[in-house]
Amino acid sequence: MLTRRRFTAVTGAAAVALGFGLPAAAQEITIKFSHVVAPDTPKGKGADKFKELAEKYTDGRVKVEVYPNSQLYKDKEELEALQLGSVQMLAPSLAKFGPLGAQQFELFDLPMLFKNRDDLRKITEGEVGKNLLATLEDKGIKGLAYWDNGFKIMTANSPVINPDDFLGLKMRIQSSKILEAQMEALGAVPQVMAFSEVYQALQTGVVDGTENTPSNTYTQRVNEVQKYGTISNHGYIGYAVIVNKKFWDGLPDDVRGQLEKAMAEATEYANSIAEDENKAALEAMKAAGTTEFHQMTPEEHEAWLKVLKPVHQKMADRIGPELLQQAYQALGTQ
After folding, report:
1. The model's pTM
2. d(Cα 302, Cα 287) in Å, to the nearest integer?
3. How far is residue 323's CA from residue 130's CA, in Å, rounded to a whole number?
């Protein structure tokens, strides 16, 4: 049952989205911003920064309600909720767009694609990234920005240093055909699972290991139930900040302009802290002593590359051969 305050917020936002001419003083626009990670992750802090700036720049005409840790929706539910208008804003992992029919975003899931953040920026800040966001519009979604989390590490309850170490391991992944192919290339058994369920699954042995960034690994306490980790940096996790297109297009022009300004500044902030957050998380996990971490050597990196690079061509038809070549061209690789 809606409270009086919630009813006012919802109907006010709906009126704006539908173009009803409410007096400026009567407008109260609520943006529900839902995400699945902890508040003290790069994405969590970025969401809170957007809330702060959006409310400041709109002089309180917009209220942003941030719901972290899957409080409203789990991984598989949130995109449908956005399309239905039950929530206005999300920052899903880029891997989440594949099941929505936007397989092109699984480009970001390709293992061993980016050497570093400079490589990453060539995509997210270039034509490839802009064109990818534009493909969401016919699904009722407006893409606003890319937010970093970082590069992934592997964890398990047995050492995962060489490709052969993964043979037969049940490894949790996000829902992504690319990530399935990655784990299969390593000889592992991919297990698709919601982020909020990973800790318990690792604790009870439903899965043997997982991949994630140090920040997500630490804030979800995954290191408490994983004995070994390899700092492989084999793949990337990032997010697209998205909004319900009908809601966004229905906002008054001045409000939308202020929200765009808030998003640009929140994006700069979130991306500037991501690398430091991951370094700090890795050091905290090392200090905790529950997980033994291995720093990958150049020789080990080459061994992983030999096994994982073929995934690119294997999945080229899924993400689009032309898109893959555009990405290679932007990165100066083959």
Report:
1. 0.83
2. 29
3. 12
Q: What phi and psi values does residue 232 have, to the nearest 5 degrees? A: -95, -30
Q: Nearest CA to 167 among 200, 208, 204?
A: 208
CB 285 within 8 A of CB 223: yes
Structural domains of the chain, count = 1
Is residue 284 within 8 Å of 216, Cβ to Cβ?
no
- The CATH number covering residue 173 comes to 3.40.190.170
> 33: closest CA among 4, 69, 8?
69
- Around 132, how many Cα atoms within 13 Å sit in the side-chain half-sphere? 31
CA angle 327, 330, 318 (to 5 degrees): 5
pLDDT in tens, 266-289: 999 999 999 999 999 999 999 999
In this structure, the dihedral spanned by the alpha carbons of residues 294, 300, 306 and 310, taken in order and rounded to 10 degrees, is 10
Rounded CA-CA distance 80/82 in Å is: 5
Both tokens of 51, joined, read 């809330």
Question: Which of 7-21, 89-103, 256-270 tops mean pLDDT?
Answer: 256-270
- Domain containing 34 equals 4-331
CA angle in degrees (0–180, nearest 5) for 323-192-279: 75
* C-alpha distance from residue 153 to each of 229, 243, 270 (Å): 7, 30, 20
CB atoms within 10 A of CB 128: 18
258 vs 57: CA distance, rounded Å: 6
CA-based end-to-end distance of the chain: 56
